[in-house]
Specification:
about 375 residues, 14 helices
Length: about 375
């Protein structure tokens, strides 16, 4: 047996272990990357372009949009523009000229491929399919601009490409897209901000099918997927802070709450958060009638509704869940079965401070 000591970690037969309490547990790929990157310069501070002239900086970065998003008047001189960018650590002055950082390029680039192929590969890609699988592609677009300067157009394009939500359209007598603009905005922003920039040759993917949209980003999240609603931890704090100041995201953990709430308002199945070995994916489904929802769909909706109620300082009951599914009181027993299945899955629990009667029972997320 051979154990390789790595700081306070161990390597055994190709698996890196870390101590958690009294036990040794395998480290996640993200944790390994953090350890091996400790001696390396932060990715966002690394140079995207060295020795740039003042004219190069203005030509490469969309400074006009930058000041518009900040809601600050555009400076009257070029030097004042450069000074503002430098004060935000977006560019750095050296004896040879200006260094444009990766952070400035990924957020403000007029053309990412003007910097490097590696940065261009970080642009989001939108693929729209004709049906429920990848057999026939209707549209395939790869971005090439910085995240902040292209964000509104990206969200608008995805939203406009979505099919109509016919159920909602008939009910309110107006044109309503299948996927709510607010939900798309939050999910796309999350994918851009929380991706793993150390992953090479991959980017944020937005894939739209006739019955769902899948938005994914490289990297494994630092928190479990069933805590997305109530917790917030950013992998990329510098990017998250800049995108917040530019009005792209809020950086206060409310994004997923808004997505779940929008799904309920638009009468959609609960969004599904998935993680595989290298990517995190959120699936937003098209409208389904209750009878067509699978058992897992109903359990997921019950759990997310319970979380949403809890963070709103309310508690889930049979009645609130019936209202979420748009079911009548005659379906009380059916909803009770869903609640029971969600409890068996370990996702919710009965609030012991309330009535023990099933009729008046209130429920909490398992973590509350």
């Amino acid at each position: 047996m051979c154990l390789l000591v790595l700081w306070d970690k161990l390597e055994y037969e190709g698996t890196y272990l870390m101590r958690v309490g009294e036990e040794l547990q395998p480290m996640t790929p993200d944790r390994l990357k953090q350890i091996f990157a400790e001696d390396h310069q932060d990715w966002f501070s690394q140079p995207a372009r060295l020795d740039a002239s003042p004219d190069d900086v203005i030509a490469l970065l969309d400074t006009q949009t930058y000041f518009e998003l900040l809601k600050v008047p555009y400076p009257t001189t070029r030097d004042a523009v450069l000074e503002r960018l430098q004060s935000q650590d977006l560019i750095k002055q050296t004896n040879q000229g200006w260094t444009i950082t990766n952070l400035a390029a990924i957020v403000l680039a007029k053309k990412l491929d003007a910097f490097s192929l590696a940065l261009a590969r970080k642009a989001p890609r939108v693929v729209i399919y004709e049906g429920i699988n990848k057999l026939q592609t209707r549209d395939d677009k790869m971005g090439n601009r910085g995240y902040a300067v292209s964000f509104e157009k990206l969200v608008s394009f995805v939203h406009s490409a979505a099919p109509q939500n016919r159920f909602i359209e008939e009910a309110v007598r107006q044109e309503v897209k299948m996927f709510p603009m607010q939900a798309l905005r939050e999910l796309i922003a999350n994918a851009l901000v929380h991706q793993d920039f150390l992953e090479t040759g991959t980017s944020v993917m937005i894939e739209m099918y006739s019955d769902r949209i899948e938005i994914s980003n490289p990297g494994i999240p630092p928190i479990p997927v069933n805590r997305f609603i109530d917790e917030n931890r950013s992998r990329n704090e510098q990017l998250a802070d800049l995108m917040r100041r530019l009005g792209i995201c809020e950086e206060k953990g409310s994004g997923i709450d808004k997505v779940v709430s929008a799904a309920e308002v638009f009468q959609l199945p609960a969004p599904d958060f998935r993680v595989d070995d290298i990517r995190t994916t959120t699936v937003l489904f098209a409208y389904q009638i209750f009878d067509d929802m699978s058992k897992s769909d109903r359990i997921r909706a019950c759990y997310q509704h319970c979380c949403l109620q809890h963070i709103s300082n309310r508690k889930m009951s049979n009645q609130t869940l019936r209202e979420r599914f748009r079911l009548s009181e005659s379906k009380t027993a059916t909803v009770s079965l869903i609640i029971g299945a969600t409890k068996e899955a370990g996702l919710i629990k009965t609030d012991d401070s309330e009535s023990n009667s099933n009729r008046y029972a209130r429920y909490l997320p398992f973590w509350a």
